[in-house]
Amino acid sequence: xxxxxxxxxxxxxxxxxxxxxxxxxxxxxxxxxxxxxxxxxxxxxxxxxxxxxxxxxxxxxxxxxxxxxxxxxxxxxxxxxxxxxxxxxxxxxxxxxxxxxxxxxxxxxxxxxxxxxxxxxxxxxxxxxxxxxxxxxxxxxxxxxxxxxxxxxxxxxxxxxxxxxxxxxxxxxxxxxxxxxxxxxxxxxxxxxxxxxxxxxxxxxxxxxxxxxxxxxxxxxxxxxxxxxxxxxxx
Length: 235
What we know:
Layout: H1 2-18, E1 22-35, E2 40-44, E3 51-55, E4 57-58, E5 65-71, E6 80-83, E7 87-97, E8 100-101, E9 107-118, E10 122-133, E11 147-153, E12 159-162, E13 165-175, E14 185-188, E15 192-203, H2 214-234
Helix pairs in contact: 1-2
Signal peptide: 1-20
Keywords: Membrane, Signal, Transmembrane, Transmembrane helix
Protein name: Putative secreted protein
């Protein structure tokens, strides 16, 4: 009986750990804490528009540099849905790369607000730092001369509780192929505009993972039960 109770307890742990909560809601972003003191402007209008930071005076192009973020569902469209532990699209990141002068902008933080609608109704804010990696325009190749938007810090500033567990948001990276490939930075060729999606996941750190040896342990317990029953019949 003791072995059956142990097996039942382990099966219960396995079933509980395998079950993940599905969350859904919308996302909204705003640019904060710019690195620099002159030559840039910030306009945070993601609700119904986009959150923008642009910098520099056009030199060899007729436009300056621009980072633009559009959170999923911020304009009233479909939001995001994600099972805890799985990636989901947070929003679209646009990088317009002009050839500019007259600025000292080196990056900013994106404050992401998740409006979680189901299975609870809460609003949580997270902050992620982004850097500009400026490439010297000396090759004549737009790609090689392109600049890079890079995630500098994926640590979060807030967590939320559901079902007795603390959940938090991890920013996983940029993707330009629907989440199949993730990178911490993406290139915007000189004189052009590139778009990449930002992906994240909601993590529940207190969940104990199912050990890889669990199937072997259950098989051993099952075999032990069969041996005990065989001995009873023999007696």
